[in-house]
Amino acid sequence: MDMETDASDVPSSIDENSISDELEMISTQEAINVVSVYNKSKLVESIAKCQKPLCEDADFECVMNMVNGTICEAVSIIESDPRGLFCYKYVKNLNIFDVEPTINLTEPADSSPSSDFLLCWQTIDQFEYGNVVAMIRHYIGLWQVSPQTKCVVLSNRRGREVALKGQIYFVDAHFSRPSQTCTNPLAVAKVRFIITVSRILPKHYPVMITYRFEGYRTLYYALGERAVNSNSFQRLYIDTILHSKLSFYAEICVCRHGTVDKPKESDESRKRQKSCSSL
């Protein structure tokens, strides 16, 4: 797989009005559902029911009520995040799977990979969008995709604020399979990476990174206890998406132009035949 990256800003592909109910991945051709975010008003109402006192005076009963209220608030926040994007267990080993990369990002693809390749995700207190994008590039480089597959990583620095929880950012990866006759193929398999920077967790926790393939609802985790310990299943998704799109475009081409054995006449050729027959 050849890797090309573009860390420059691209036009935002995020719907500006959907963050409160459901975040959506918007591509140039279709929308891809991302993750449902708990309704802000429901969460605020749930926390308000906890009735946590301020406890300005050293009152034991007030302290007990404050502790109970804090626990109640924590439960409400955790229950509002079933996917574990903002509330998750600490990842002890930040290094991803102990495997060699399928490509080398700085050397030709046919060169021997380095066995010292290790990837450590950034922590919350050290979060920088550009560095996380670079890590995602390296992570994609570990995927065992089909030969001649090309990937372009597109960044989008405009984050979104999720009430009471933190920030969410996006990175898009476009996979294609160009050839000598078609250097810019129409068929592109899109993968959206979701970066969540939690405001709830301790600062030494790593930022959570998940991703979803175009046309599929399953959300995959790049790290943590929900991460899939495999770098080969992504190939099936990418190949399936590319094959489906190529088949669709081929059918359109047959409908418009016919086949090699039975080509369809264009409107111009028909007009020429009519003009010749009238002479």
Automatic annotation (TrEMBL):
Pfam families: AKAP28
GO cellular component: cAMP-dependent protein kinase complex
Transmembrane segments: none
GO terms, molecular function: protein kinase A regulatory subunit binding
Protein name as catalogued: GH22688
Organism, as annotated: Drosophila grimshawi (Hawaiian fruit fly)
InterPro entries recorded: AKAP (IPR053084), AKAP_28 (IPR025663)
